[in-house]
Design goal:
Elements: E1 5-7, H1 11-21, H2 27-45, E2 51-57, E3 62-68, E4 72-79, H3 86-92, E5 97-98, E6 100-105, E7 112-118, E8 126-131, E9 134-135, H4 139-150, E10 155-163, H5 165-174, E11 179-185, E12 188-189, E13 195-196, H6 202-207
Parallel strand pairs: 1-11, 4-5, 4-6, 4-8, 8-10, 9-10, 10-11
Antiparallel strand pairs: 2-3, 6-7, 12-13
Helix pairs in contact: 1-2, 2-3
This protein binds 1-O-pyrophosphono-5-O-phosphono-alpha-D-ribofuranose and uracil (URA).
């Protein structure tokens, strides 16, 4: 596997993702699970956040103790399904700014069409976490990251819950400077470019639009 891909292995993630896959999991539970999975993944994806020692006065004495330092965060969900991951990440980092990139896949060509982009400014100095639960062909993530780089983003990570091997390879090779965090790599894409076994259409399952 490429150096810029981190496969996050954890029994809690595995269990929750199996529940996401289950077609009998309803919208309410599905949303909660996506949030929990995102929080667990975020814990790992933010492992290298820089720390600096600051002086803290405990009830007993004064000490030097580590707190987060350096770059501020920007969370950038790819609409719509990426929105489901925002709450979990905000639980971890409540002060993060949130940008949005709107993309939908053309049903016939499967090529992503961008319809919205609003990023926090200035974006240059922020650590940017792009989020989308599904990486199928990889086109949406590739284009979203290209868009963010075009706007000045330099330090970018990408979090995705389930990826098809070809989509993951595409994003990782086109953006070798972006560290990718993925919880499960599935078998393949079907003729409609859906991930197999996957979980179906993540946007529809989060928003109950099927
Ligand atoms: C889904 C998903 C990703 C994209 C992945 O979005 O949330 O954004 O497909 O496919 P790709 O890797 O082949 O680009 P969709 O286009 O269905 O839009 P939606 O989230 O608004 O339903
Ligand atoms: N988008 C989804 O939501 N699911 C897939 O399997 C592929 C693209």
């Amino acid at each position: 596997m490429r150096d810029n891909i981190t496969l996050i292995n954890h029994p809690l993630l595995a269990h929750k993702i199996s529940m996401l896959r289950d077609k009998n999991t309803g919208t309410n539970e599905f949303r909660k699970l996506v949030e929990e999975v995102s929080m667990l993944m975020g814990y790992e994806a933010l492992r290298d956040l820089p720390l600096e020692d600051v002086e803290i006065e405990t009830p007993i004495e004064t000490c030097m103790s580590p707190m987060l330092a350096g770059k501020k965060l920007a969370l950038v969900p790819i609409l719509r399904a990426g929105l489901g991951m925002v709450g979990g990440m905000l639980t971890l980092c409540p002060t993060a700014k949130v940008g949005h990139i709107g993309m939908y896949r053309d049903e016939d060509t499967h090529i992503p069409q961008e319809y919205y982009c609003k990023l926090p400014k200035p974006i240059e100095d922020r650590l940017i976490i792009v989020m989308d639960p599904m990486t199928a062909t990889g086109g949406s993530a590739e284009d979203a990251i290209t868009q963010i780089k075009g706007a000045g983003g330099t330090h970018i990570k990408y979090m995705t819950i389930i990826a098809a091997p070809e989509g993951l390879e595409r994003v990782a090779s086109v953006h070798p400077d972006v560290q990718i965090y993925v919880a499960q790599i599935d078998r393949c894409l079907n003729a409609d470019a859906y991930i197999c076994p996957g979980l179906g259409d993540a946007g529809d399952r989060i928003f109950g639009t099927k």
